[in-house]
Amino acid sequence: MSEWKPRGREVVIGDVPWLARMTDKARAKADGTIGEYIYPCPMDQRLLSASGISAEDFLDIATKNKTDDDVVEAFKEKSGRSDWSDFSI
Question: Rounded CA gap, 76 and 34, in Å?
């Protein structure tokens, strides 16, 4: 059995860098399988700060929305921001 890993930092969903990886880590934290990874790590905190969403609120978004499309929609709605072209990791 291999160790769980979140998606790579280069994976982009909904035109939001880092969101896929942060989603994976938030879900793993919620279900107790995060292992050595950290949620929210400094990069997670950077994206959360830019979005105006707390780590706890994003944990709720990640666990209540089962598909990437649903996470993206909820994330963008909560952040009030649809264009993330100026955000980079």
Answer: 25
pLDDT in tens, 47-56: 999 999 999 9
Tokens of 64: 């209540």
- Spatial separation of the C-alpha atoms in residues 33 and 49, rounded to whole Å: 25
Domain count, the chain: 1
Find the DSSP H helices in 1-89: 19-31, 42-51, 55-64, 68-79
pLDDT (tens digit per residue) in 58-82: 999 999 999 999 999 999 999 999 9
89 inside domain: no
pTM: 0.95
- Domain of 37 in residue numbering reads as 12-79
